[in-house]
Amino acid sequence: MDIKFTNDQLERYSRHIILKEVGVKGQKKLLGGSVLIIGAGGLGAPAALYLAAAGVGHIGIVDADVVDLSNLQRQVIHTTNDIGKPKVESAKETMEAINPDVEVTTYQKFLASDNIMDIIKDYDIILDGTDNFPAKFLINDACVMANKPFVHAGIIRFKGQLMTVIPHESPCYRCVFKTMPPKDAVPTCKQAGVIGAMAGVIGCLQALEAVKYLTGAGELLTGKLLTFDALKMEFHTIKLPPRGEGCAVCSDHPTITELIDYEQAQCEWKPGQN
Amino acid sequence: MKITVSGEKKEVKDGITVSELIVEENVETPEYVTVSVNEEFVKKEDFETKKLSEGDEVEFLYFMGGGAYFA
Fold it and tell me: Which of A8, A89, A153, A259 is 20 to 30 A from residue A144's alpha carbon, by CA?
């Protein structure tokens, strides 16, 4: 894509352009690039802010929910004035206010097997900012089947983790976590709590992975799970075994070839709500 | 014997099994943890019988949600 920078853009992105890993070329890739953020919550909020500021040309954001007072402790893209507003609308307004170069597409809906493929197909890379495991498995399986890179992340209490998946090259989420945990078997943030800035740390790392993927800078967090413990203030990288060995979805002979709508694991989900 | 658990060196009894280590390390939700030893996953059905050796590097990988509830 041939993009001619305006003077304003040269100034806006000057701290990127001066980086040898980004430069004019990399900034053009960001402006010509697209990222889908699934969930405008704790993880999606900081990721969306930084990706908009970075000048990613097209950002999609998926979330069925409206802004609630209890969100504001960590979902920094929304303000007190946004309470009751659809999260995707609030997020879009903030992103557009930060950077008019960014085109934002909103999807105020739940992801399911019948809509996810159609949504992810338009994006270069996908960020998983969801809380629940049905969504995490759905995103993994859909991205593997559609060959779309994505960045998994999770946070709880004072801990967080993330990994980047390049389907059919690096291990996928299902290579590590084979099957859905039963309902309420694993605590969620609502049940266990989460420190607000944890969402910022991990959401920003997801944004960084998207920027690196689009610009080609450095090495992606593939084949590794990065964990962060804020109480110890320690990052730890867990190296993963090679991709696909016995994986139900990304091995060369997958047993899962169709998307699965698992029962919602979180206790708050209400059928029919969207 | 000495092994490495989540990047930290630990002294454990000789021939400790993965199941025993899970108890010793107070692993949360032990039924749903993924375990790797020397960068290879251990199958859940082998947790009871898989004995660890001196110098092994053990990692626990946890399910972690977080982020948005209603996407």
Answer: A89
**Per-residue model confidence as pLDDT tens digits over B14-31:** 999 999 999 999 998 888
E strands in chain A: 34-38, 58-62, 103-107, 125-128, 150-156, 159-165, 224-229, 234-239
Instruction: List pLDDT tens digits, range A127-161.
Output: 999 988 999 999 999 999 999 999 999 999 999 99
Interface mutation target, options B31, B39, B61, B69, chain A, most CBs of A under 10 Å: B69
Give this complex's ipTM: 0.90
pLDDT tens for each residue of A33-68 = 999 999 999 999 999 999 999 999 999 999 999 999
| Contact residues, chain A, for B34 at CB < 8 Å | 176-178
* CB contact (8 A) between residue A153 and residue B41: no
Answer yes or no: are the C-beta atoms of A39 and A129 closer than 8 Å: yes
Alpha-carbon span A81 to A98, nearest angstrom = 17
Count of CB pairs separated by less than 8 Å, A with B: 123
